[in-house]
Design a protein that fits this description.
Strands 1-4-2-3 form a four-stranded antiparallel sheet, with helices on both faces. The chain has one domain. It is globular, with a radius of gyration of 15 Å. It has 165 residues and is of the alpha+beta class. It starts with 8 loop residues before the first helix and ends in a 14-residue tail after the last helix.
Length: 165
């Protein structure tokens, strides 16, 4: 499998990723394990992205999660299906928090917040992989490093403060 294929749905399924559900179904996703692991957020569309002027994500302690159009453009990864790679000590809890944040609730964890400025955010799919015997953070770091090697920068919604570097 070539490097970019690793970050397609088919490649991720070969690596054990399951689920592929939209955030809108995360509340009812009892099949999400309670164990630790990593997860990816995948874009379904192949057309160029469109960005919302304001994030639909929740404001935590009065702080607006919106980033400027320059940040969105700088962080966009042309041709990549994966827009975010994350980790969790408890996948079910973390993915529900992520979904709650996207529905406007004031959740303190802002990881991946740029996805809530994509006009297509409701069609994004989430998949996860348990990491028994591995530290989820280590797996996440390895995946992001590999993605960066393939695409020249991290996934769109990872490390937004680095402006696409």
């Amino acid at each position: 499998m070539n490097s970019k294929a690793r970050f397609t749905r088919a490649g991720l399924e070969l690596d054990g990723f399951l689920g592929w559900v939209p955030f809108t179904q995360m509340k009812a996703a009892d099949k999400v394990p309670k164990t630790g692991g990593v997860y990816v957020v995948r874009r379904v569309q192949t057309s160029p992205p469109e960005f919302l002027p304001s994030s639909i994500g929740g404001w935590f302690k009065g702080k607006d999660p919106t980033v400027s159009p320059d940040v969105l453009v700088a962080n966009w990864v042309e041709g990549a299906e994966v827009v975010y790679i994350g980790k969790a000590d408890q996948l079910r809890r973390r993915l529900r928090q992520f979904a709650d944040f996207g529905s406007g609730k004031p959740i303190g964890h802002w990881g991946g917040r740029l996805i809530w400025q994509l006009t297509e955010c409701e069609t994004l799919l989430v998949a996860w992989r348990e990491t028994p015997g591995e530290v989820p953070k280590d797996v996440e770091v390895g995946m992001i490093d590999e993605f960066r090697t393939v695409y020249g920068k991290p996934p769109f919604a990872n490390d937004p403060h680095l402006l696409g570097k």
